[in-house]
Structure to design on (652 residues):
């Protein structure tokens, strides 16, 4: 067992995959110096033919990666801030994602887009603090949000090896998470398979990304009153509906906690599917950012807009108390 | 105050504002850090000295200099950076979104290259209104590689709009040098659209002012857009996180050489010592007042976290699903 941080796990996954597969190359801003500490050392090791420091031309280099992928490479793109995904939404949603079907299966676009530090980074304000994973799940681009170091490693590996475009969000709130990891057991984690971090029988809490830690804390806090099961979907699209059903059919109660906007968010999709297809015994709840939220700058305002642990705790208690 | 004294005062104000702000970052009073403008003061001071109060500017992530030079109150600006409800944006925007519409400041902007098209639209509105207002967009050398900016050059030139594009070439986009990122020359990009472009010494406020005056006059007279490339050196970090993280992309020799030509001295040496000292003392007092005001100001009430989300006052559901209530 060794101590591994989430950030180091991302770094290691990319390094391992580049060493294993010469078709893997990485593009992005300031990745040579490695300002986000994921691409550290890669330029020295693999040279500028595989580690490409790009000008600030996100739209161009995103579709440039699509072209390279169509021609057989396996590019990985680092985005410094989550909102840059808004800038390249056309290139991902309308180009990369559509090639396979539109070409009748002739083409594949194995590009991985990753954001080290999504969501609030305290004090980065309105344009740097979004969590647009729901948009990608909505258009059907494979979307992963790992919550632990070993899942960060394993899902990054799988994303790179996958033959379709995959977006990987590494929440700012997760980067510092450390875990005791069996380094020899590190390996790919399949897309679309959730993970139960803590078993329980009364309430299922689905938590996305860094909120898995909050959910575990709430489960611990309530341990002597309510038995909480913490389900981490890990992949938002494709979603592990069978895994969720197994949990919800056991507990009959569901709370989702998701650090993105409420309206048309991933939490809404999870509640809807559970309501349609699973044996819910009481109405479910979700804890999210508000509708249409823009993160305000001042710390207390920024925090007030993100889902809070105490809100989750209250939601779990309410769902538990609701009569069957 | 003479024009030369005014230029120096603006630069001195920006310099001391940034230095005090860096102290507040290190003290934990400014959360999220800042992109210091130190070393580039002559550009904001020179360009804004050519502008009227009703002219419009758009700025960048490195925006404090532009916002101050265009006339925002440094006291309320510092309150904004410290996240207070007395700030220019009531603590909602912070360093990267500081704005003062009363002074034509359409805001700093967190997205590189995003301000150019916004300024151009504002210039169009001025023309439609029959006003001779101009708009200025400040951006860095990194921004000239953004597609939207090149699209904007075309619109501005095609429709002969009174907009001035000011590219502050400080040699780097974060860690990437201009040589690594820009093909051809920066001014040639504007010239390709028929936009008159000049390169000026961005460490010399008087030279910047002269170039800006010519461009602004052309804009007011219906002559269309202009482009100024102003070269300067960024004295401090790309962002204050560099003060803690070990990111190496400039040699100590390079930084020392870059800092040796200080825009405050280039222009300050044109004033007599007594005048300069008087301005320095006045700025010192003002900044002391700004720091005290910021730290004494109330913090915003979390219940109002989504105030102003919609201009119409529309309220959606909060994060736990209740309609039209306080956020939490
Ligand atoms: C479109 C976009 N890409 C990337 C970033 C992240 N980023 C912020 S500042 C910066 C460098 C900007 O360089 P330049 O335009 O030269 O301005 P300078 O920082 O030198 O003032 C980068 C890459 C961003 N904010 N927006
Ligand atoms: Mg620059």
């Amino acid at each position: 067992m060794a101590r591994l941080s989430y950030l180091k796990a991302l770094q290691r996954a990319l390094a391992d995959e580049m060493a294993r597969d010469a078709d893997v190359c990485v593009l992005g801003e300031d990745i040579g110096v490695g300002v986000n500490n994921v691409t550290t050392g890669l330029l020295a090791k693999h040279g500028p033919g595989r580690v490409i420091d790009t000008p600030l031309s996100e739209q161009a280099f995103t579709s440039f990666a699509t072209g390279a992928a169509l021609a057989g490479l396996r590019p990985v793109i680092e985005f410094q801030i989550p909102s840059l995904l808004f800038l390249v939404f056309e290139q991902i949603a309308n180009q990369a994602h559509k090639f396979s079907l539109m070409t009748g299966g002739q083409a594949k676009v194995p590009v991985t887009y990753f954001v080290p530090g999504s969501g609030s980074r305290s004090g980065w304000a309105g344009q740097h603090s979004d969590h647009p994973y729901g948009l990608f799940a909505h258009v059907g681009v494979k979307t992963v949000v790992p919550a632990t170091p070993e899942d960060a490693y394993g899902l990054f590996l799988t994303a790179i090896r996958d033959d379709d475009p995959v977006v990987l969000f590494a929440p700012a709130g997760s980067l510092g998470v450390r875990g005791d990891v069996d380094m020899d057991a590190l390996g790919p984690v399949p897309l679309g398979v959730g993970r139960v971090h803590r078993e329980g029988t009364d309430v299922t809490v689905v938590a996305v990304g860094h909120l898995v830690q909050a959910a575990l804390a709430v489960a611990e806090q309530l341990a002597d009153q309510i038995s909480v099961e913490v389900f981490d979907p890990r992949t938002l699209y494709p979603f592990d509906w069978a895994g969720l059903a197994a949990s919800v059919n056991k507990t009959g109660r569901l709370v989702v906690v998701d650090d993105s906007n409420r309206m048309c968010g991933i939490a809404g999709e999870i509640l809807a599917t559970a309501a349609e297809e699973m044996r819910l015994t009481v109405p479910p709840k979700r804890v999210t950012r508000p509708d249409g939220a823009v993160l305000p700058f001042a710390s207390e305002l920024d925090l007030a807009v993100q889902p809070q642990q105490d809100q989750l705790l209250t939601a779990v208690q309410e769902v538990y108390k609701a009569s069957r | 105050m003479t024009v030369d004294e005014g230029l120096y005062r603006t630069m001195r104000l920006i310099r001391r504002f940034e230095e005090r702000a860096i102290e507040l970052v290190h003290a934990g009073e400014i959360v999220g850090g800042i992109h210091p403008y130190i070393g580039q003061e002559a550009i904001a001071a020179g360009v804004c000295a050519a502008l009227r109060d009703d002219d419009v500017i758009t700025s960048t992530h490195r925006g404090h200099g532009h916002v101050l030079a265009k006339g925002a109150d440094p006291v309320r600006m510092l309150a904004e950076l410290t996240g207070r409800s007395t700030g220019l944006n009531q603590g909602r925007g912070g360093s990267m979104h500081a704005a003062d519409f009363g002074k034509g400041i359409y805001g700093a902007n967190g997205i590189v290259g995003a301000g150019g098209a916004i300024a151009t639209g504002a210039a169009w509105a001025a023309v439609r209104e029959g006003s001779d207002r101009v708009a200025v967009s400040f951006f860095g050398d990194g921004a000239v590689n953004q597609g939207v900016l090149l699209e904007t050059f075309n619109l501005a030139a095609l429709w002969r709009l009174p907009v001035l594009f000011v590219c502050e070439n400080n040699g780097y986009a974060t860690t990437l040098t201009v040589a690594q990122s820009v093909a051809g020359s920066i001014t040639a990009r504007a010239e390709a659209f028929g936009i008159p472009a000049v390169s000026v010494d961005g460490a010399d406020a008087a030279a910047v002012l002269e170039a800006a005056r010519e461009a602004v006059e052309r804009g007011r007279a219906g002559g269309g857009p202009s482009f100024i490339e102003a070269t300067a050196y960024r004295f401090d970090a790309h962002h204050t996180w560099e003060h803690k993280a070990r990111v190496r992309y400039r040699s100590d020799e390079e930084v020392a050489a870059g800092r040796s030509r200080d825009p405050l001295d280039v222009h300050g040496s044109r004033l007599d010592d007594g005048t300069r000292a008087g301005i320095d003392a006045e700025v010192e007092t003002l900044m002391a007042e700004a720091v005290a005001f910021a730290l004494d100001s109330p913090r915003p009430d979390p219940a109002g976290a989504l105030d102003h989300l919609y201009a119409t006052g529309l309220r959606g559901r909060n994060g736990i699903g209740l309609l039209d209530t306080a956020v939490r």
About this structure: Residues 154 and 192 of chain B are 9 Å apart (CA to CA). Chain B has one domain: 3-301.
